[in-house]
Amino acid sequence: MRRTKSPELHGKVALITGGARGLGAATAWAICEVGGKVMIADLLAERGEQTAAELREAGHDARFTPLDVRDEAAWADAVRATTHAFGKLDILVNNAGIATAATIEDLTVVDFQAILDINLLGPFRGMQAVIPVMKAHGGGAIVNISSNSTQRVSAITTSYAATKAAVANMTKSAAIHLAQTGTGIRVNSVHPGPHATEMLLGSDAKADLPEVRALRDAIPMGRMGQAEEVGAVVAFLASDAASYVTGAELFVDGGLTPH
Ligand SMILES: NC(=O)c1ccc[n+]([C@@H]2O[C@H](COP(=O)([O-])OP(=O)(O)OC[C@H]3O[C@@H](n4cnc5c(N)ncnc54)[C@H](O)[C@@H]3O)[C@@H](O)[C@H]2O)c1
Prior knowledge:
The protein is of the alpha/beta class. It contains eight helices and seven strands, in the order βαβαβαβαβαβαααβ. It has a single domain (13-252), classed as NAD(P)-binding Rossmann-like Domain (Rossmann fold).
């Protein structure tokens, strides 16, 4: 008899926002590689279709649906597209996000509202959209991608770090409510440190800039993370191996936060 729950997602269906590229695409691969099926949802249609096609070429079950996380009606469409394609929805990964760099003196209300609408209200709308579907199936797992900027800020993370800290606390409130009401839905947040994606570097050419080198040197493990290292942690939290984990913050940052 098998006594230990190792991370596996056979037959589980995941909706991944911002899954066209970066950490979201790596999460799609991680979920598929342990047996899951994925619906990639993103603003970037061409890139999202391409990522889904690459997954299918590797033998996985992956589709793309367009989604702007700022649009409540689009959320309903994405959830419907997922259940229509796969028959159910077990996992939501709220990964889509943007970064705005501005100090408290430079940040405008318009820019602050724009990032709140994506980074905070996006996951909020997503959770509200999937909870009824998950409840009807007796449970599910939601993973919200926050950031290690909940603990480590700089002068220019005024809006970004605020949205990510809010995501972490929203995650915990949702986790408590969904546990106390017996829904079988777990909610956790993942907090990546610096990862060499297009969000952070924009292009490979930036990888050798002095400020990027300084960022890398501050990490106790001496390197930035690989996107698949976030994907693996998300897949673990989404799996029954994490059946007693809810309301948790999991840092994936090479030791940067405690340093
Ligand atoms: N890269 C890092 O170092 C790092 C560190 C900590 C946290 N994060 C977080 O991880 C997540 C993914 O970041 P990444 O580095 O892969 O970034 P990325 O820019 O490479 O990818 C983000 C994806 O989100 C999509 N997106 C943006 N706005 C959207 C919207 N309104 N609706 C739907 N999709 C939208 C983009 O099209 C893109 O595909 C973000 O939430 C980010 O804040 C990243």
